[in-house]
Amino acid sequence: xxxxxxxxxxxxxxxxxxxxxxxxxxxxxxxxxxxxxxxxxxxxxxxxxxxxxxxxxxxxxxxxxxxxxxxxxxxxxxxxxxxxxxxxxxxxxxxxxxxxxxxxxxxxxxxxxxxxxxxxxxxxxxxxxxxxxxxxxxxxxxxxxxxxxxxxxxxxxxxxxxxxxxxxxxxxxxxxxxxxxxxxxxxxxxxxxxxxxxxxxxxxxxxxxxxxxxxxxxxxxxxxxxxxxxxxxxxxxxxxxxxxxxxxxxxxxxxxxxxxxxxxxxxxxxxxxxxxxxxxxxxxxxxxxxxxxxxxxxxxxxxxxxxxxxxxxxxxxxxxxxxxxxxxxxxxxxxxxxx
Length: 339
Ligand code: FDP
Hints:
This protein is of the alpha+beta class. The chain is built from 8 helices and 17 strands. The termini are far apart. Bound molecules: 2,6-di-O-phosphono-beta-D-fructofuranose (FDP).
């Protein structure tokens, strides 16, 4: 008999059993996430055939050009998530304020923050994109406000992403390691294919947008120069560079084979009065939890990302995450630069 493998639902139930936790509501919540990701995976896969490519001709709350698919992805996700009665509110990269669950649906105990389609610049060129999500608890029985979403990353009960690439993959953590599921389109199920994802401590691969080299601050400049010096430099080995142009694509590669991802503070961001490029609540925190749960580290250079107390929904932070040896080295370079 040919076996289908473990589905996402079976995995969540079995994990709950192993942890002695009742996972009913949570299983249903993750099923809704999976349904939304399957719908998005289909749209992304059809590309131009679905008429979803190109610019929408408007900007999001952060002044970035929106693609049609950014807006559609936001609507698809909200539509799939709002009906269950399990969420108390939703915050999205594409919406200025949080989205309250409409009165016609029951309100639940969880808050969802998400980036509907990360790596938008890859949409029109058929490159890797993804949806990133973070789930926290809403302990209060009243309707949440924006401030209820402002929780440190350590309070996430679940985090993950769905990568839309040559295969669509859902990768998630509920605080007990990281597992990856590949979408089997023939049965419409995410099947467990990567049961225990670990980021190796050591790596010889880094990911950074090198076109910003002239803006880098001393710690990153030193780090990349030393990597690029190869066998003749202080690292005494050659390094490889990869930049997918989408955080989901880069973090997925790092979860698969190690590496370090940098979107650090630089002089250009400083001059523009920005605290970083990537968003804390729905990019850095969920990716940080995944990386830490897989044995890596997630830092800004001066603080652990998951311990940052957010002050706004769309707060930005510098990001350095991945293989522990390299992140520790970068933290040390930051300490030495400020000594
Ligand atoms: P995008 O703006 O295309 O959605 O958060 C956004 C992000 O992509 C990340 O996915 C990606 O790593 C980064 O920005 C790319 O930024 P640069 O264009 O500055 O390289």
